[in-house]
Specification:
Largest sheet: 7 strands, parallel
Oligomer: single chain
Number of domains: 2
CATH class of the largest domain: Alpha Beta
CATH superfamily of the largest domain: Glycogen Phosphorylase B
Radius of gyration: 22 Å
Distance between the termini: 19 Å
Helix content: 25-40%
Strand content: 15-25%
Number of strands: 15
CATH topology of the largest domain: Rossmann fold
Length: 411
Amino acid sequence: MIKILSIGHSEKGGGIQTVFRVNNSISDSNVKVIKAFHSDDESIADIDLNRISDYKNPIKKILSYFFIPKNYFGLAKFLKKNKVDIIHIHASANLSLGILFAIKKYKKEAKVVFTSHGYGLACPVYSCYSYGKGSICTDCIKFGKESRVIKNKCDKRGYIFSTFRYIDFIIRKKVTNNYSLYDCIVTPSEYLQQLLIKSRHKFKNIKVVPNPIEMAPNIGDYDSKRNLITFVGRFSKEKNVDMLIDSFAQIIKDDNLSNLKLNILGDGPEKEYYFKKIKENGIESKVFISNKFLDRPELEKLLVESKVLVLPSVSPETFGLVLFEGVRYRLIPVSLNIGAQSENISKLGLGFLYSENTIESLNDAIKKAILNYDKLINRIDQANHIIDKDFSVQSYQDNIISTYYEALENN
């Protein structure tokens, strides 16, 4: 039997938490998973950890970026008393640098697997998007000199947090011996794998394990579909929803699409700007904006009526979970031809990509999706079969167990 110490910040939620939760639920007689995370009402960890986000006092919060005593001593105590074969880190940014210190000092012969859900291994602000420049930025990945994130104010909160991000990044590299602490790095997409391979960092072993999709297929029915397009996500600058609003305002001028409506679902700092854009375009009666991040039942009620899911983000996704969830609700995805969203639309054989970040290109892609929806029903069903086969919970668990054994075999 192999023993896995699985480390993350929470099992509650979607995205990273979904992967962490699925990983922890492995039921294999040859695998035992010991779970380290922040316990909540729904799930209890074997090793309880604190998160940076749990600290409200500004001074304590700043200090927690670099060291949370409970996390360091909790992991150190466990590792000193127990032998594990694999230490799998799903998330460390919200748990402080202390967990890396503990792992480095007390891991013994254990192999360390790190799942890179985002860009944190190569980008100090984790996003490959500079808020200071207002654009995608891969300069640190290609050229180094990560201190540029301070000058460019890459963190959306300005100079101070950009400085914290830089210091955190440098210390992480130092603690992990330029990432040599990690025996295997897992990425959810080929896009992110290739980005890390081509970076200036010498990562020694990178394997692609696609994220699991827990949702059932074909939620809702085709009869309930209306001429409705939807965006789901955070209302932030890089999501490019303002361009979607302008695009929508032009599309509905077409007599064949005058009954089209738009749902913008989520929350974030750009909300008031969206309302302003909608008013400027005179389309208030055609657009619905949610006043919060919707829970699953609220979101489902709106998605089952929609035909098209638009991902206008100018920041490349490392997986694009919302794309898969949209297909589960029988939506056709439309996306800028970048990142993992492009990769996965191609894998599913469903959706429309536009290559230029212009209103005209987005208009054309949305029109193709909405006007050809009925012709693409069979392809929607086929895409759901592909998700069942290649992106299932079982497929993920089989792949990650295989990754563990490969890590143990490589000395």
